[in-house]
């Protein structure tokens, strides 16, 4: 039982460390989602950024493809990181619960 | 989200495509999982394992081209975890990847840089023993280099004595003994003896000391 407890504790520490890393990775990604608008046949871009309860549109004008790609990749990575963060939060809750179980406490 | 097993296979498959997998060894508790293709015994089951998957890189390295592993795995959700002194691990909720190299001479207190792979590896003792005794295993479409189970078991017994945490010590000893007993059951005790006998005396003492803590003295009887 000691071995299982040790493994769970190690996993909990790893998950807590990972949680911080994913949170800071999300913060480091460029904010906002790119919105394309067609005006008289020309494409113009706006960056939609959520500020508290409001969505703000920041005019970016014409944008090179490379920069568009950067925002698109950031959007995909943000979604991925959020999903993984939610997975980590579930792991943390599970591991904390498992480590608090009477059966493990009494045997350690 | 991919489960741990699928993610592990995806990582290994990408390493194989990049011609990295053929140059490195999978070590640590994931070996026990892959050994199922070595033992081919229906009663064989892999034990409890953590998320860590360790790759052992023999040095000097022989990689044909330079690749950036953190970049290669970024779209799977892996993020770089920079430890103090520069050690890099790749973290994912399902898998933690670490690269190791054998420690030479007096050792070093900084990680071993592997610019060919875009990572820094941790240098550890006794790993040459695993590099010198390997097997090749096919697993799905992968060609894996693993330590021979006898080397895996004996190495685990040696390093178990160096563990500070008692539960880690017990876990490693139990894993080692389990694998060695399965080898004996398979009729490969000669291999264990062949690897044990040429070991330095200190190593042999560590192996015997670890085995003495087990109630079943079958392995000691074979070795002494």
Helices, strands, pairings?
The complex is a heterodimer of chains A (108) and B (224).
Chain A lengths: L1 H27 L4 E7 L2 E10 L2 E8 L3 H36 L1 H6 L1
Chain B lengths: L3 H14 L7 E3 L2 H5 L1 H4 L12 E5 L12 H5 L5 E4 L5 E5 L2 E8 L9 E3 L4 E6 L2 H5 L2 E6 L2 E6 L1 H12 L5 H20 L3 H8 L4 H12 L5 H6 L1
Parallel strand pairs in B: 2-5, 5-7
Antiparallel strand pairs in B: 1-2, 3-4, 4-5, 6-7, 8-9
Helix pairs in contact in B: 6-7, 6-9
What is the string of helix and strand elements of chain A? HEEEHH
Uncertain ranges of chain B: none
Query: How would you sum up the major sheet of chain A?
Result: 3 strands, antiparallel
Helical fraction of chain B equals: 40-55%
- Overall mean confidence score, pLDDT of chain A: 89
Unreliable parts of chain A:
none
Which H/E pattern describes the elements of chain B?
Answer: HEHHEHEEEEEHEEHHHHH
- End-to-end span of chain B in angstroms? 50 Å
The radius of gyration over CA of chain B amounts to 17 Å
What keyword list fits this structure?
heterodimer; A: 108 residues; alpha+beta; 3-stranded antiparallel beta sheet; 3 strands; B: 224 residues; 2 domains; 7-stranded mixed beta sheet; two-stranded antiparallel ribbon; 10 helices
